Structure formats: C-alpha cells, structure tokens
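Agenda item 2: adenosine-5'-diphosphate complex prediction
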Amino acid sequence: MSIATPELQDSAAGALARPMLEVKDLVVRYGRGRKAAAAPAAVDGVSFTIAPGETVGLVGESGSGKSTIGKAILGLQAVSGGSIEYQGQDITRANAAQRRKLGGELRAVFQDPNSSLNPRNTVGASLAEPLRLRGVSAADAREKAQVMLERVGLPREAVDRYPSQFSGGQRQRIAVARALICEPQLVVCDEAVSALDLSTQAQVLNLLADLRDERGLSYLFIAHDISVVQFLAQRVVVLYRGQVMESGPAAAVTESPKHPFTQALVAASPVPRPAEQAERRSVREAMGVRTAASVSAAPGGCPFRQRCPLATELCAAERPALRTVGGSDVACHYA
Ligand code: ADP
Ligand code: MG
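Presented output:
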C-alpha cells in the first residue's frame, strides 16, 4: 500500500472540486452583423455547472434555447458572449484541432438517431467510426462495437445490420452505444427520449441511468418535459426565452417549484394517471398562466411577465436577478 503525498492529495481534492462543465453568462445570437445585434438573444446570460458524475436537467418550452446551449457546448454553434469551461479548460472558442481532441470525451445523443447513424452504413460501421478516428484497429473497433451493442441490450449480430432494420427505440439504443463507445466523460442528451413512446422512453432512461452509474458519467439532459428530466437529473435548470428562471436540486424544482413559469411547466407535464392529470389541469387553469401563443416578446424586464399571473409594473421595469428561495435560485420578484 502506498501513502499519498500531500501534493497528490491536493490535486485529487482539486479534481473533485473542479466541475466537469462550467457555463458562465452564455449568450448566443443567431445571424451575423447588424441582424444578429438586433435579434433577441436565443441564449441570454445563462450560467450553470455540472459536477463529475452529475446529471443536470435543462427544461423549457420549445424555442427557449435548450438545443442552442447544447450545440454551443458541443462546438456546433458559435458563442456571442460568456464562457464554457470543460474540466477547467476554456473551450468557448475551441478550434477544430482542439475540438477533435475533445471529440471522444464530449459526446451527444439527439432526438433523431438518424442524425448520428448514417442509414447507408451498417450499425457496426457507425459504431466503429469514432473509434477508428482515434486510431483503433478495424478488428478491435468491431469487437468493441459488439460488446457495446450487448451492453445496450442488442445482439452482437446487430453490427452487420442497417439502422432501418431496427425500431425507433432500438435505434436510440444504438445512438447511445455510439455516444458511449469512446468512453466519454460528459454526454449531452438533447430530447434523447422525446420521440419514443412511454414504455420505450422508460427503458432508454433506465439504460442511460445504468450507464451513468457504471461509468461515473456526467449528463446534460435536455428535454421539454420536466417529468422526463426529473427521472435522471440531480439538479434542474429551467429556461424561458433564453434565460434561467429557476435552478436547484431536482426534488425542490419539480416538487415545490418557486417560479410561476416552473409551476406552469410542472402542471403541464403529462402524467400517466388520469386523476392526477385532471388535478394538474385544474391547477394550471387556476394559476391563470397565459399560453405562449397569446403574447409577443417585449424587451426588458422579466421575459415571463406577459404570461404571469403575479406580474406588476416592477416586472416590466426590472429584470429579476436570481436569488435563493428555499434551496433553489429563482429569478422572480415575487417568488
Ligand atoms: P429549444 O431547443 O429550447 O426548442 P432552440 O435552441 O432550438 O430552442 O431555439 C432557441 C431560439 O433560437 C428559437 O427562437 C429559435 O427559433 C432560434 N433558432 C434556433 N436555431 C436557429 C438557427 N439556426 N437560426 C436562427 N435562429 C435559430
Ligand atoms: Mg431543441
């Protein structure tokens, strides 16, 4: 048995304290030049961290900027402001060579498995590709692909078949296998189970949870449905129009939401029990939250104020800063 030197202990403690990912004041505007400057930011000053082995859920309605944040982290979308650090390394504007190095550690699973599986390639070729890019021999890559397929609940023979020969749920398992085959540290799951029916959704969520626990993975788990996020995430970040409305421990955010928008999101999330569904509908109606379609964006102040039953003049005048309320951070003057 060896005795750790103080330096080693220090660096080990440093590694534990260091987040896997740190997103700080992230701003993303689409378009270029004057057009971009005039457009509202798709992501407007978002900050959060993901610890090693932690799953952070990112929820919000369609168009709230969730995928844009995921793409910025993956280097698929240029960043207008703020920073993204991966294991202490600034990757906000990483060049192609730096991204290639990160490529094995930072992976993604998207809603549509076809985006990572070429329909003309066998499953084996799709799984081998990221390994081959990293210098693994064809024979070893095939063997690893077979092992990985078994791990996600498919037969080894699947390597020689094509994506079209599998169901949607099976294809999503193959996409998970492809994301995990290089043994990444952080996986961005963007609506990874949103296209699946409820029972297949549960199976893939269980698979993602098992793989995380086995390998100590970190996930950024993006979904519009807060009940899906709740299953995997230890912490939840709630987005509205590119801004964080609320963030905190998953149980606090989903069971006692503080922000009126989070309350509406929880009430709107589908549940399999009809009695509970009916109760949620009446809660939703009683809250008096207006639908997204009924209001247009207005600059300044709280982005949610036009839909909010609690809104006052203050909410139009002043964008609420995040403040701590009962264990969560909430951007509301009245929460
Ligand atoms: P979400 O994933 O939460 O549905 P997105 O990140 O896809 O939201 O989109 C956030 C906002 O950015 C939306 O208003 C959307 O219309 C806009 N947007 C997304 N992609 C593009 C793009 N390629 N060009 C211009 N605007 C975009
Ligand atoms: Mg999206």
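Discussion summary: The CA atoms of residues 173 and 204 lie 7 Å apart.
Owner for follow-up: CH.
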